[in-house]
Amino acid sequence: MAFDKNGNGFTFVFATVMVVVVATLLALASINLKPFQQKNVSEEKMQNILKTINVNCSRAEAPGRFGEYVKRRVVLDYSSKVIWESEEAIDNMNKADAFNINTKKEFKALDVDERKYPVYICEKDGETYYVIPMIGSGLWGPIWGYVALESDLNTVYGASFDHDKETPGLGAEINTAEFQAQFPGEHLFDESGNFVSIKVKKGGARPEDLHGVDAITGGTITSNGVTEMLGRTLKVYESYFNTVK
Fold first, then answer.
1. 21 in a domain, yes or no?
2. What pTM, to 2 d.p., does this model score?
């Protein structure tokens, strides 16, 4: 029995077939593109970690240089206890590997005491650096970054921050070289050894302030988000820092 091409039945069947075909094509495209997307995310992550120790390279160059500088990967629990570590190459299939921990996903899904806390121990020019990843909230969405500490585990050597959708010219400025350049030389602990973190201060930080940087003009909520992210995340590592020292 032939369909009446002008009837509702034909229109319904045709629309159904088209929806199935388009959905199938999109699913296949997503499956085929996923490895490339994961590769790009992985390379960008390596690039940002290296950036904090002043190793600047393209995204494509990052995998070749990552192992040259990142000598050990460690994972801590909330009590700063080491629960995993390795000096071997990254195992992409091992979810316990520090590099494979999705800090953004854990930030959304897990309480602070249930998350895992990676550390990347790097060596460059005979010096050791500790790179700490972090995730927080800006005005419109997540913000994240990496902070590299010198071997005293107090002095910041470098920092890299980024965001999903902060306002251009305002909160989005956290990913600019000008904002990030304020962090090297800042200290996490005061002269008595108390953890005080680093604050992004509205109205500006004094030049002699070793625990504060200038906030972004017009980006108060994002600036506060960076302050909260630094304090909350780095505090978890305090016991580990004291153990390593």
1. no
2. 0.85
The verdict on residue 31 lying in a domain is no
Interatomic CA distance for residues 143 and 177, integer angstroms: 16
Residue 224 lies in a domain: yes
Residue type, 151: S
pLDDT in tens, 40-84: 889 999 999 999 999 999 999 999 999 999 999 999 999 999 999
Total of domains in the chain: 1
